[in-house]
Amino acid sequence: MAAKQISKKKHLEEEQVKLKSIDKQPIHEEYEYVTIPPDGGFGWVVAIAAMLCNLVCDGTLFAFGTMKLHLQKHFQCSDMLILMVGSVPCGVYLLVGPIVSGLANRYGCRPIIIIGSIGASACMVLSTLSPNVWAMMIIYGVFGGIFFGMVYLPSVVMVSFYFDKKRPIANGIVTAGTGIGALSFGPLADFLMGKLGWKTGMLIFAGIMLTCILFGAIMKPLQPTRVPIKKDIELETSVNSQYKKGQHTPSSAVYREKAGETNVPLLPPGDESARISNPATVPGSNNGSSEIPAVTTVGMISSPLDQSQRNRTTSISSHTSVDSNGNRVGVSNPEDASRPLYKKDALFMGSKQQLHMSHTSLNKTNPYMSSVTNIPAATTEEKKKESAVQAFANILGAMTDLSILKNKQMLLICIGNIFSMLGYYLPIMCLISFATEDMGVNQTTASFLLTIFGFCNTIGRFAGGPIAMLPHLSALRVHNALLFTAGILTVLAAYAYNFTTCALYAGLMGFAIAPHMSLMPNIICDSVGLDRFTTAFGVLFLFRGVTSIIGPPAAGFLKDYTRKYDLAFAIGGAMIVIASFFHFCIVCVPTDREVETNEKQEEIRQKNKLDV
What we know:
Blueprint: H1 2-23, E1 29-34, H2 42-62, H3 64-75, H4 79-95, H5 97-107, H6 109-127, H7 133-162, H8 167-196, H9 198-209, H10 211-218, E2 225-235, H11 237-244, E3 279-281, E4 291-293, E5 312-316, H12 334-337, H13 352-363, H14 381-399, H15 408-424, H16 426-439, H17 443-446, H18 448-468, H19 475-492, H20 499-513, H21 515-518, H22 520-528, H23 533-562, H24 566-584, H25 592-611
Antiparallel strand pairs: 1-2, 2-5, 3-4
């Protein structure tokens, strides 16, 4: 009897060893690809290159206020027509934002920047051959604006791709390029065109534009990292205890993943060959649409005495493609991982800390998610080609989705920007002419008004974020107060009477209008969330682009009609004031999240009443 018990015990030990050997089989590995922002290193070189792109691109466009005086003498045209030559490229390079974003996502930012710089330079060269103002409006305005947009937007996106935690600092460097360009290119344009003629000056600016080829070549895309997803199989202790008692395990078991607590049932007894692949929703996703394949495994049904089912628990030993919030950031196709516009925060240029503070006060959650959008897995060459086509179509469709205007706060922002952009370019394109023609200021001296404007505008862009983080302040409050101030200042500019008063207006206006650009990303993100930020920003580009084209020519029309610029500044300032009132109304409209929360709370109250 004792020998029989010893034999049975030995047999049990042998079977347990067999079970353990099965679990010690080679670990099944799955791979995905993720791009990790270095937050420094070569990223600072990219940031400086993007800053220089902005310096050349925006500096050339903002210098038109000085160029206008020389061009108008040559073409002998009205203020309305010559200002349209300068306003069309400013509007077009915003209007093509969704298309350029799609191209950058399809082909990469670097080739788009290089093509854009070559095209913009060529348009500037060809514009010197324009027989009339209408030809220049098409060559320099329409086609030049398209290529300017191909330089501007991808350079900003590349900085966002290289930086995460230090993104506000990097984007501050990039933003400085706009201000430096505004303060330096105005006097430069006056000097070159005054000494050498407008055609030679334009050719020199075309040569400067070609330097963006070098800056774009520096912006090499981030290479995706191959990340293994290891599944370590461990035998539950309950299996042995249940087997010793001669019991079968339950007919179903659970796979638990640390990244998502994904439940996958084992195969039913008797099916030894089938495999299970259960799509599991990635936790932390806003819309729950991002899906990853769960572990695919063969149902092991063999047991020591009767083909009994076993209970397993799997855990992810290394899953670096899940961020601190549990959001999936990896994709199966390495090409998709390198597409910058698939990042939900690719166009977000604000302070993440500030965004967290503002959202926390509303939703008690951290809305910042750097995960990619829902990208279908591309496993075959044919699917990879389809994925490349979709890379363009997805972003273009997302950035032109007008359904975002169902969000009442976003609708108010867009309407407000329609009015604000009617007056935004007034000091940039009309202030020098206002000083020289209405006040008799020397043209060389007047060109430095843009220098004053650009210097103070740069300070305002840097200062807006820190000011908004002060106690009892927010991005929206700071933006609205300074936008209202900018409108009042522009109205009062109609009463300027000498260079000193014009310079005072240029400095104060440059500082006050700066948050309208630097803090707008935070305001939009607070309204629609980071998940739909790309859509909201793309739609805003469309609204801003249309009114940017209309604003300066309208001011020129008023000048042609009244022979002075004072009425143009008064009306332009009034438009900015009206824009501030639309932005003030944002706080009176609940966000979509607040509406959803209120509806859920009301449902709970109604249910509680019924239960009582």
